[in-house]
Specification:
This protein is of the alpha+beta class. It has 4 helices and 6 strands, in the order αααββαββββ. A hairpin with a 2-residue loop joins strand 1 and strand 2.
């Protein structure tokens, strides 16, 4: 009987963990369009998530740029380093707080691999990229 109570206790604890995980906020989810923009090399899709000013580090470009300037720099990068056709971008790590999240990933291009880092902040309903780094590995 004691063994049965222990098994029931373990099951109840396990179920409570599942319930807590299921009800936890899903704010940390990375918008799919950001992943698609990186995987396909589509700077326009990616830049739709840029804040009005973006801290950008891409190869020799290291500054704070306007959204339009940042889009051009990223488009130029993708024209020189097109992503491979399948599984070009993968998330290595992501973490953060309620309104800020950072993501570290790997971008596979036809000319090598790059480490990608971006910082997302939430303004009202949408997440925006405030910082983007693409560095050769």
């Amino acid at each position: 009987m004691k063994k049965f109570k222990n098994i029931i206790s373990v099951i109840l604890i396990f179920c409570s963990f599942i319930a807590v995980a299921a009800t936890a906020p899903q704010d940390k989810k990375i918008p799919n369009e950001i992943k698609v923009g990186l995987e396909t090399g589509n700077a326009k899709v990616l830049s739709s998530y840029f804040n009005q000013n973006v801290e950008l580090v891409v190869l020799d470009n290291d500054n704070v740029y306007s959204k339009a300037q940042a889009q051009q720099i990223v488009a130029n990068f993708f024209s020189k380093f097109p992503p491979v056709e399948e599984n070009a971008f993968s998330v290595i790590h992501d973490s953060g707080k309620e309104n800020a999240q950072y993501v570290i990933g790997k971008l596979k291009t036809e000319k090598g691999e790059f480490r990608v880092y971006f910082l997302l902040k939430q303004n009202s309903e949408k997440k925006y990229i405030h910082q983007l780094r693409i560095e050769q590995q």
